Amino acid sequence: MALTIAGSDSGGGAGIQADLKAFARCGVHGTCAITAITAQNTLGVSAVHPVPVEIILAQVRAVADDIGVDAVKIGMLGTAEVALGVARALDELPHRTPVVLDPVMVAESGAQLLEEDARRALLEQVLPRAGVVTPNVPEARVLVGAAAEPDAPADLDALTDEALVRAVGALGSGAVVLTGGHRATAVGGDRERAVDLFLQGDGEIVEIPGERHLGGGAHGSGCTHSAALAAHLALGRTPLQAARAARAVAGEAVRHGLRDVGAGAGPVDVLGIAALRDRGQPSDHEPEGSRGDSPGHTRRAGPERGGAPGAGSSAR
To answer: Is residue 97 a contact partner of residue 70, using CB atoms and an 8 Å limit?
Structure first.
């Protein structure tokens, strides 16, 4: 059983919708506690309504009291009040329940998604309670910069990826996966790798390579990656085993992304929906609407586009 504590994406591509699909893909029953309701589609977010903290706590308690929680994935928090409430909820779960924190802080456009007080609450109250934190490179820089203020390095961009992952690890989580969507490595021809960096405690940094799918649909890949990691922790895997499995799941989800959904960045396809849809096309003798699309519905095809950034584990 895995619990996601995150925001709802009305477009179905990211947030709890992506998390629950990833849990199912990994063979784990998924439950949720919604922290915010967003009005969102493939083009962006137009409105956000935070859920009251007492309702977030009630959701977690209802799940824990009856169904149980073998691992937790934390996504969008939004406000300092919500971050503090989630920290309280984690303390009510059984000791040593694995917690994966996906620090949703920076949009692909570079826009900050958390105010300063919320970043501080995440750093001081939520991150130390996490067994694994899964930032992409921009988020890792924000985490390190916020923790070091006013003594932050003048140019965080100058830090090597290895120095950055160790700096995040020093903030207090058990392990760090620096996701590779913003870290492209050429391997010959037009192919590139997207390499995640894994660090646990003071150990050695481990590379988790995977192919970069520039033509895939990447919306929700960060959510999918962290949820798959939590699912594999729920199944009893070690953090490194779970990180490797999550990289594979997220990479395939981007590769098969639904580029014909919406006019913006298409969502990942972690459940193989496109293949099921293709196999479910009506035959010549079946009436329209008996399978697949409902009668009179025409699927709108969006323009061809690549995922941003096209790795398996970085687009939020």
So the answer is: yes
